[in-house]
Design goal:
Helix 5 runs parallel beside helix 6. The model has no long low-confidence stretch (mean pLDDT 96). By secondary structure, this protein is of the alpha/beta class. The chain has a seven-stranded mixed sheet with strand order 5-4-3-6-7-9-8, with helices on both faces. Helices cover 32% and strands 16% of the residues.
């Protein structure tokens, strides 16, 4: 699949990042080596800063992360929520094949498919979650999974909650291995907002804090209206 599979612009917002491709490639090299408390973390320096800003402003009581990998980001979210003074923070981290060895009472690791979240997040559990809610879609970076996550959480999110679709920037990375994602996260965001746009606001302040879409999540910081 070529790099020409593009997502439709959202209003006047294209998905391309202001960060030049060759710079992104170098940033990606470093990002894939990041650790937190000796656990692989895989967050870009831009998004570490942006998440800290969001955690401070939103003060989420619950973070739901789709895509666990080794558990570094779940641990980071739990620690940062605690550092922000959030009382009894809760992190749910879901992955089809979790590799985490992290043990932490604030974190619940769940084995589940991003396309079948209803099987692991039943209605009674969802209704018991404390808001504000921050949902992080960081599963396969494929269109089907990103779309399924967005649609699943759409009726769950309340005004002010956030859902962040990660790694749309893969479409601008030069490695051939990134072509297999077929621009999935960005296409999913564009198609989701084409249907549910009146219910959401792209947080342009976060997206553009360091330059136009200078984030791994272009147009992907979504606030529920």
């Amino acid at each position: 699949m070529s790099n020409d599979m593009r997502a439709a612009p959202v209003g006047d917002r294209a998905f391309e990042s202001a960060i030049p491709a060759q710079v992104l490639d170098r940033i990606q090299h470093g990002t894939m080596r990041t650790t937190y408390r000796s656990v692989p973390f895989y967050k870009s320096p831009f998004d570490i800063s942006l998440y800290l800003e969001l955690l401070g402003a939103l003060a989420p009581r619950t973070v739901i992360e789709i895509g666990t990998k080794f558990g570094g980001s779940a641990l980071w979210f739990a620690d940062m929520m605690t550092a922000q003074g959030i009382h009894s923070p809760r992190v749910l981290s879901i992955d089809i094949e979790p590799l985490s060895e992290v043990v932490d009472p604030r974190i619940t690791f769940i084995t589940g498919d991003a396309k079948r979240l209803d099987a692991v997040l039943p209605l009674d559990l969802l209704e018991a979650l404390r808001h504000p809610l921050l949902v992080v879609e960081d599963s396969s970076h494929m269109y089907a999974e990103s779309t399924a996550v967005l649609e699943f959480f759409h009726p769950v999110l309340e005004t002010g909650d956030y859902i962040v679709v990660e790694d749309g920037v893969v479409n601008q990375l030069s490695g051939e291995q990134y072509r297999r994602y077929e621009n999935g996260p960005n296409r999913a965001v564009a198609d989701f907002l084409a249907v549910h746009g009146p219910d959401y606001e792209i947080d342009a302040d976060l997206c553009d804090r360091f330059g136009r879409n200078a984030t791994y999540n272009p147009n992907g910081w979504l606030r529920r209206r």
